[in-house]
Amino acid sequence: MYATLFGLLTATGMRIAEALALQIDDVTADGLVVRQTKFQKSRLLPLHATARLALDRYLVARRSLTTTDRALFVSVAGQSLPYNTVRRIFLQLLDRTNLRGAYSGRDPRIHDLRHTFAVRSLEQCRHDRAAVARHIVALSTYLGHAHVTDTYWYLQATPVLMGQIAEAGEALLIGGAA
Questions:
Q1: I need a surface site. Which of 84, 142, 169, 171 has the fewest CB within 10 A?
Q2: Are 61 and 1 contacting, i.e. CB atoms less than 8 angstroms apart?
Q3: Residue 96: phi, psi to the nearest 5?
Q4: Region 74-99 average pLDDT
Q5: Average pLDDT value for the chain
Q6: Residue at 28 is within a domain
Q7: What CATH number is associated with residue 40?
């Protein structure tokens, strides 16, 4: 269950609160329906085939639990997962994988999975100005942000993005298209 939960957070960029609020009925053939989120917006998150396969495997195990709780992610006792329990397990995983203090002395956070999703998404975008502008708007909608400017906070310099910026700068300097 935790592998599926953390995997979905990584593959979709969902907020942890959104993932914990998912109900069984929110899993559709088209993806995950994230309802009434932080900004009272619902959205559909399509799933990559590998994420869908992992979710389907989890659903088989989930159906074997005897529970009336409709939450997608439930404990072995059949109850909805509280955030504090998920955070505790996440910290235990950090301990077991020696990732404590991995970011300049601070611990990775569950929310960092969302930031990484946003950055990796941008890295895959064609890097011309119009394509990036369209991609940022689409990413903002996908992440459920109220304003596109909220998405900029998620972005950080990575070797891939810095390389793309350097290429664009060199092309501009030489007189090519940026």
A1: 84
A2: yes
A3: -65, -25
A4: 93
A5: 88
A6: yes
A7: 1.10.443.10
Question: Which residue range(s) make up the domain with 167?
Answer: 112-174
Active site residue 15: yes
Angle between helices 2-12 and 49-63 (to 10 degrees): 150
Task: Let me know if 127 is a catalytic residue.
Answer: no
Our measurement of the distance from residue 154's CA atom to the centroid of its chain's CA atoms, rounded to an integer in Å, reads: 11
Whether 85 and 44 map to the same domain: the answer is yes
Residues 26, 90: one domain?
yes
CB 19 within 8 A of CB 73: yes
The tokens of 36 are what? 């009434």
Could you tell me if 24 and 87 lie in one domain? yes
Do 87 and 48 reside in the same domain of the chain?
yes
Residue 102 located in a structural domain: no
Q: What is the DSSP letter of 24?
A: G
Is position 43 annotated as part of the catalytic site?
no
- Cα atoms found within 13 Å of the Cα of residue 164, Cβ hemisphere only: 13
Residue 88 appears among annotated catalytic residues: no
pLDDT at 126 over 90: no
pTM: 0.82
Catalytic site includes residue 41: no
Q: Of the listed 38, 88, 120, 126, which one is catalytic?
A: 38
